[in-house]
Amino acid sequence: MPVMEKKRMIHRIEEVILILLILLNALDFFEILPADMDYAKKVISWTALGYLLYKTSLTTIFFNNRHRHVDILLIISYFMLIFKNIILFSSGVIEEFVIFYDFQNFILDNALMLELYFFITGGIIIILLAVYSSFFIDVREPSLMNIIHEEGRPDSIYKFLTRIVTVYLVYTAFFVAVFNLIMEWLAIAIDAPLIMLGLLFYLFIIMRHYRKYNVESLIYRIGKFGEIFYEKFISLFHYKKTILLGISGMLVLHLLTDALSFILPYILTFRDSLYFSQLGAGHDSLIPLFLGQIENQPFLEQFSLFFVYLLNAIGILFLLILPSFFWYSAFTGRIYHASKLRLALFFSSVSVLLIAPVFSISRLKDKAILGVDIQTGFANNIFFSSFFQVLFFVAVVFLLLYLLMKYFKMPIIYFAVITTLLFFTYYIYLFFTSLIFYYIDIIPALFAASRLFLSFHFLVFFAINILFYVAGFIMLIDEIIKEKVYKNFL
Question: What is the model's pTM?
Answer without folding.
Answer: 0.79
